[in-house]
Sequence to fold (172 residues):
Amino acid sequence: MFKIVRIPQQSLVIEQGENELMEIERSCFFPEVQEAWESKKKLLQSAISCFFAYVDGKIVGEAYTITKNAIREGNAYQKDQENFNHLISMMTDRDVYLCSFGVLPHYNGKGIGRALISNIIVDTFDKGYVMGYAYAHEAVAEHICKKFHGKIISEHTNWFGAEKTRVLYKIG
Fold:
């Protein structure tokens, strides 16, 4: 059984969860877009909405959104400023970017991802924002768009040299 917990911006849980959060980072994202701990912590502390998934007291999943102004703090922005500047230009002040969404592979298929996304959407709307944009693997983006009535905005082949398509999608 898992538990989804909303994490406040300046929570000690962020600092204390470094090892588990970095395990998610290494397991769910290819090296070119992985965050170093200091930049990840900064993004988490600036998050509009942040949720962690726990199983037996261990963080096994995360999802957090940031404003367009915070996007420039991430490693992915530094590696692909052209695409991220285009994304930023499409966003309004009410849109958010799903900066990170990951569940440890061992816990996939158990409803944790769906619960994280559901919570992040509701919390984002409750705060007056629109659950906006995200990049994901093609299959993940299609699945999320189907479940949450999103739409594919663009496809990026060989994104960061990963030889797989990444899809920019929007929910809301």
